[in-house]
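Lab manual, section 2.4: Encoding a predicted structure.

Procedure: take the sequence of the chain (588 residues), apply the prediction step described in section 2.3, and record the output as structure tokens. A sample record is shown.
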Amino acid sequence: MWRKVVANVPPWLYLGSVLILVGIVVVMAMRNTHREKSLAAQTLLEKGAALIKAFESGARTGMGMHWRGDQFQVLLEEMANQPGIFYLAVTGEDGLILADSDKGKIGSRLHGPEEMKALAIGAKEKWRITNLADGRKAFEVYRSFEPLVSRNATDACEEQGWLDSCPWSGLGSSGGTGRQVIFIAFDVEPFDAALAEDMRNTVILSAILLLLGVGGVMTLFWAQSYRFSKRQLKDTRAFASEIVSNLPVGLITTDSDGKLAVVNGAAERISGLKAADIVGKFPEDVLPAVWCSLKDVIGQGKPVMEHETECSFDGEMNLPLSLSASKILNEEGSYLGNLFIFRDLGEVRRLQEEVRRKEKLAALGSLAAGVAHEIRNPLSSIKGIAKYFEGQCAEGSQGRELAAVMAQEVDRLNRVITELLDFARPSDLKTRLTDVGGLIEHSLRLVRQDAEGKMITVAFHRDESLPLVAIDPDRLTQALLNLYLNAIQAMEGGGALSVRASADGRGGIRIEVEDSGKGIAPESLSNIFNPYFTTKSSGTGLGLAIVQKIIEAHRGEVKVKSTPDRGTTFNILLPVDRPEGGFHDRKA
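Recorded output:
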């Protein structure tokens, strides 16, 4: 289920995931850059605050030790002489420099009055980015300057009596009064370089994360596509394999090397060859020569369609086959192998022969019915005249004997005509549920006396579990009697007549009539159901033809197996027919 859900995820969802990932990486990079800038500003601010406090502490100490102005200037210059510091200056509220690490700038203006007012100077350190006169950028930290708490520096100098030595006294009208401001300016170039390096690292790291994220999403997409494709390929292979395995026609393929690759079940059944024995071999080594000759034809790019031929797979019996063959090419036109499809035409030809036989029998039946009708009427007159002459001739005279022979021959001819009419007329079946076992027992009682007179034993093997069958009992009895009489006539010196009834395993009933007589010659087996074919001197040749006609009218079939001097077995296969709504008369 999970695979199915993932496989159905639309591509735009993966694209949306990538865009969200890009947004996350960009936001993280911006936040990281902002954090780095804040850390750098905080570092400089803390450094400036520490230096300001240190200078204030030094100023207080110097005042207590009665330092001269030049000594304060040295302290200022020494503190400003540290790496990365542009200047350290003390100004009045109006921006005039009272003290500076560059002594020459004392008395000049560091910032204008308006700018000083905008700085909102207080007791807490503040910072800003400013541009120096030479164009360089500086990180400026500032706050009010209070070397002595609650008093300004000039007042402290006056109180100590050393105003003349105060380093920031007497510098203008406002130099000695008001609040002083201390400024310290740092060079931001090293921090900008560090920030630039951090930015590069952030960009590189973000790019790597982005690539990893996109790669992960794409890998997931490709992995699921691969799984889905693999699953589809497995399903397609299983589907194709199932189709190939269950095709009702034989299928054989070769690979690009010309070796047999696929042999389906129908091909095994038709050819009698096992797939495990021939797969991987060349067709020339295991298949008939007429088959392999098709390779030359399809090698010229011409497919073979429904080519009828006869092949012998075992070197003995020829099988009628319909062969089709063609090349197997992929989408690029590359050769993958050959495909052979074949059908067994044995059943088709048998059906064709059956149709021809029935057409012949139908024509013959129509002709026989007409002829029999025209002959039967004169026969009645001939028999009447024969009886008349028989009555006119004296007992034991030659004329009386000839008249009797004439009457007998007329009766025989009339019997032949009656059988011919029975064969020619349609089989009107009056079907009803019948116990086949009881019917067979009844039919055997009718011939038991004739069989015992010829020293023939009669046996019936009955299966009590057989179901009732919808048949015409009178017509089936007629068919069985014909088979019994043929069997009795084939055992002039005695023998055994055996009848068995059983289920045939396909939902029908099998009736076997077996005798131990002289059998039927192999060359005669294919003709025994033809009208007027007989091997007996006194037979009409219609008995077995009528048997076949009756069985086929029941939608069954009759088969024969015979071994000369060992006996003959007739197999009758009847379907179990139970129509809904009752049984009715049926014509065939």
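Check your result against the sample. The first strand starts at residue 85 and ends at 91.
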